[in-house]
Design brief:
12 strands; NADH-dep_flavin_reductase; mainly beta; riboflavin reductase (NADPH) activity; 3 helices; 3-stranded antiparallel sheet; Pnp Oxidase, Chain A; monooxygenase
């Protein structure tokens, strides 16, 4: 059995590369227009009331808008949306320019078209967590009618679910 390693950022990254996660895009309306980023930290927190959470780095370009947004959008991506996930993960990308299809949704939140499901949530807390914040939002609207299979993130790559 190999020796255990001291906790480091590299150890944490290495372990979580082995954890398959669903892929979401978080959006908000900023002063200069829409913002968004790819997230794999999405979690359901509570059914009553309906709460969700996600992490966002305080150094990310989206953080200034997320830090003050009253509402956020959460989009669950399908396996056909690897390029969309990559666009929202890429620093400096024009995330809302073509070919990204989106519209103004409830509460003025940018809603992406063609996703498996989306939710709009009212931000109820931003909890400091190292170089990130854990954002907790209460769901106010959504749509779960998409029919594709989910997009996954594993070993540093976007993947498809296999039977």
């Amino acid at each position: 059995m190999p020796a255990d390693l001291l906790a480091t950022p590299d150890l944490l990254r290495s372990v979580f590369r082995r954890h398959a996660a669903g892929v979401a895009v978080i959006t908000a309306r900023g002063d200069a227009g829409p913002v968004g980023f790819t997230a794999t930290s999405l979690a359901s927190v509570s059914a009553e009331p309906p709460l969700l959470s996600f992490g966002v780095g305080t150094g990310s370009s989206s953080w200034p808008a997320i830090a003050v947004a009253e509402h956020v959008g959460v989009h669950i991506l399908g396996e056909h949306q690897q390029e969309l996930a990559a666009t929202f993960a890429r620093s400096g990308a024009d995330r809302f320019g073509p070919p990204t299809a989106w519209r103004d949704g409830p509460e003025g939140v940018p809603v992406l078209d063609g996703v498996l499901a989306w939710l709009v949530g009212r931000v109820v807390a931003r909890v400091p967590a190292g170089d990130h914040r854990i954002v907790i939002a209460e769901v106010v609207r959504g749509d779960s009618t998409g029919t594709a299979r989910p997009l996954l993130y594993h070993q540093g790559r976007f993947n498809r679910l296999r039977d």
